[in-house]
């Protein structure tokens, strides 16, 4: 059933091949790192020395600096292309120097904040040479309860933001992702959803100002960048438009106590009926409720047979919830609960940047707009049990998500969506064969889901970056190539982004060359919206 998916096979194979066979000519690398270091030094201000922010491969800390923000072990292998230099910028003048020198020497620049990109594009490039502008030292979180806002720098992690808000108020929070180690830079420029989405929308719906550096090295705020560019960096992906230094966010109101629960049901315990009921109600419930559904294949404890385990978190009585299942806690404690920390874990666990249990990862995404019947659910369980590894997570929409116009931000997946699907495969095995196998399992489940998900385009979530959806070769066809995945991520907003990109970065300096290229260059950009 529904295993056809035009174009994806060739494109995805191509992207893998490119990644794994890329080779570097060392002379040009050596040349580039030396001149790049020299250029950076000569462009830095005496008051803010840059030398201590430069890591070349000759530096004994180079590998540690590189690896400490690789969050997908798929890109921690010896043949993953390595940067010729890492600049851990300490001051905005270092970012300016990076842009000036990268342009002057034609070295590809990758911008990394939290390093959680699922395809590693913040620290891997097929361009030779390339370097990393690492924003990890820009990590202040400045909360102002009086104005109910906060300035958060891009290298801060979500946990630091949650912690920083809670340290000043028990009744304020911020709607963003579930994993506390995700970086602000990628998360807020690409969307940012979490369990307050039905109440307050996405992170991008709660940004009120930003500070960034453009291709000319100029520092801009909302007023000086203008509303178009300010819109683009709230969901259009930061890396195509400039280097973002910080976002100003609006805090939202949370009750002093929230209620959480987690229920597990196996297939034998009527999981199908529970899921079917979830399908009817989760997107219609009061927007104060968010019930995420996770479907996983687990081995039966006693019999060893595989079972489908269904796990439901966060409050809804009709699903067989007993009051003993419910736990009251503060909002900030609930952020830990969602990450499976034991109850009572001190809140400063949110500040930890030491990753636990890193694995090799593949993610894909979909949007569901119609209920899946019980019979089809049963078939889906069978398919999942065959494939064994990929996990499905359903995040319900509705509430505020259905009320924000699709044109408000680049993120277009609003009214009409019942829930978002995340396909997740995680593995420990090293090597290309294991990677190929696990990626293939993920694609198989994705193909199986074709009849049940959005079509024309089959939509996808930018923050769940998925190179299967297309890569760019930066040739004459780059606009057409970008459109293939661009309309999936942005739908009708894609052309508006192309227009903004063409205006603010006509030379296409800011690019994720494996992913994005809103090509302005010589070829005339077709903008039906103009
Ligand atoms: C464990 C895990 C859990 C996750 N949970 C959620 C979740 O609950 N909700 C959700 O919405 N998403 C989630 N994500 C996805 C996550 O939001 C994205 O991967 C996000 O882009 C990560 O941001 P980062 O700064 O850590 O990533 P990075 O890898 O540093 O950057 C991601 C992209 O943004 C660009 N970028 C980064 N910083 C800047 C900057 N300062 N200026 C311009 N461009 C920049 C990079 O070049 C790259 O293209 C999760 C990811 C992981 C790995
Ligand atoms: C430049 O890189 C090469 C190899 O990547 C390395 O051998 C050399 O020491 C580097 N030069 C500097 C100045 O760090
Ligand atoms: C590595 O770089 C850091 C930061 O610039 C510097 O303090 C250190 O001395 C360097 N170490 C080596 C061995 O070059
Ligand atoms: C990443 O690779 C390096 C070099 O092989 C290794 O030392 C390190 O342990 C790896 N990181 C993780 C988290 O496995
Ligand atoms: C499953 O549903 C049936 C029929 O609705 C019910 O009789 C039974 O008690 C349920 N089983 C469980 C474990 O909930």
UniProtKB/TrEMBL annotation:
Q: Which domain of life is it from?
A: Eukaryota
Chief subcellular location: secreted
Asked if Protease is a keyword of the record, the answer is no
Q: Give the Gene3D superfamilies listed for this entry.
A: 3.30.465.10, 3.40.462.20, Uridine Diphospho-n-acetylenolpyruvylglucosamine Reductase, domain 2 (3.30.43.10)
FAD-binding PCMH-type domain residues: 79-254
Tell me the compartments it is located in: Secreted, Cell wall
One Pfam family in the UniProt entry: BBE
- Keywords on record: Cell wall, Disulfide bond, FAD, Flavoprotein, Glycoprotein, Nucleotide-binding, Oxidoreductase, Secreted, Signal
The UniProt GO MF terms for this protein read:
nucleotide binding; oxidoreductase activity
The protein's required cofactors: FAD
Where is the secretion signal located? Answer: 1-30
Question: InterPro entries this protein is in?
Answer: BBE (IPR012951), FAD-bd_PCMH (IPR016166), FAD-bd_PCMH-like_sf (IPR036318), FAD-bd_PCMH_sub1 (IPR016167), FAD-bd_PCMH_sub2 (IPR016169), Oxid_FAD_bind_N (IPR006094)
What the record says about family reads:
Belongs to the oxygen-dependent FAD-linked oxidoreductase family.
PANTHER family the UniProt entry points to: OS08G0158400 PROTEIN
Q: What is this protein called?
A: FAD-binding PCMH-type domain-containing protein
Organism the protein comes from = Eucalyptus globulus (Tasmanian blue gum)
């Amino acid at each position: 059933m529904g295993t056809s998916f035009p174009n994806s096979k060739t494109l995805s194979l191509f992207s893998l091949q490119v990644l794994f066979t890329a080779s570097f000519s060392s002379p040009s690398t050596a040349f580039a790192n030396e001149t790049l270091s020299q250029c950076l030094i000569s462009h830095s201000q005496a008051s803010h020395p840059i030398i201590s922010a430069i890591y070349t491969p000759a530096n004994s800390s180079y590998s540690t600096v590189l690896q400490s923000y690789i969050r997908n072990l798929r890109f921690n292998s010896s043949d993953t292309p390595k940067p010729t230099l890492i600049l851990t910028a300490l001051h905005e003048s270092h970012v300016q120097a990076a842009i000036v020198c990268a342009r002057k020497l034609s070295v590809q620049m990758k911008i990394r904040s939290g390093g959680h990109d699922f395809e590693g594009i913040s620290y891997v490039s097929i361009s030779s040479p390339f370097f990393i502008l690492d924003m990890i030292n820009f990590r202040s979180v400045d909360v102002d309860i009086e104005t109910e806002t906060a300035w958060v720098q891009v290298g801060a992690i979500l946990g630091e933001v949650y912690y920083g808000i809670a340290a000043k108020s028990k009744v304020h929070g911020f709607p963003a992702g579930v994993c506390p180690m995700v970086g602000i830079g990628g998360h807020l420029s690409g969307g940012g959803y979490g369990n307050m989405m039905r109440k307050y929308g996405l992170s991008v719906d709660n940004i009120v100002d930003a500070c960034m550096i453009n291709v000319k090295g100029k520092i801009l705020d909302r007023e000086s960048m203008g509303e178009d560019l300010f819109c683009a960096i709230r969901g259009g992906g930061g890396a195509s438009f400039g280097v973002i230094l910080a976002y100003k966010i609006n805090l939202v109101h949370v009750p002093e106590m929230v209620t959480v629960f987690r229920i597990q049901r196996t297939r034998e315990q009527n999981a199908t009926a529970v899921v079917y009921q979830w399908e009817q109600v989760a997107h219609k419930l009061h927007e104060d409720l968010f019930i995420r559904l996770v479907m996983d294949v687990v081995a039966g404890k006693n019999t060893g047979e595989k079972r489908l385990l269904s796990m439901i978190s966060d409050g809804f009585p009709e699903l067989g919830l007993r009051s003993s299942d419910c736990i009251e806690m503060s909002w900030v404690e609930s952020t830990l609960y969602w990450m499976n920390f034991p109850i009572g874990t001190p809140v400063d666990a949110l500040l930890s940047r030491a990753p636990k249990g890193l694995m090799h990862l593949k993610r894909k995404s979909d949007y569901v707009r119609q209920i899946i019947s019980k019979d089809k659910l049963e078939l889906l369980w069978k398919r999942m049990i065959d494939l064994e590894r990929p996990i499905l997570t359903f995040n319900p929409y509705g509430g505020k998500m259905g009320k924000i116009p699709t044109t408000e931000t680049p993120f277009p997946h609003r009214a009409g969506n019942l829930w978002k699907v995340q396909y997740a495969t995680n593995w420990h095995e090293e090597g290309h064969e294991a990677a190929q196998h696990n990626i293939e399992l993920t694609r198989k489940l994705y193909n199986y889901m074709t009849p049940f998900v959005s079509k024309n385009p089959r939509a996808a979530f930018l923050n769940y970056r998925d190179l299967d959806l297309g890569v760019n070769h930066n040739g004459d066809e780059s606009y057409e190539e970008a459109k293939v995945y661009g309309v999936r991520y942005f739908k009708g907003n894609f052309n508006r982004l192309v227009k903004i990109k063409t205006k603010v970065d006509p030379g296409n300096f800011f690019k994720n060359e494996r992913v994005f290229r809103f090509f302005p260059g010589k070829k005339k950009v077709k903008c039906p919206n103009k």
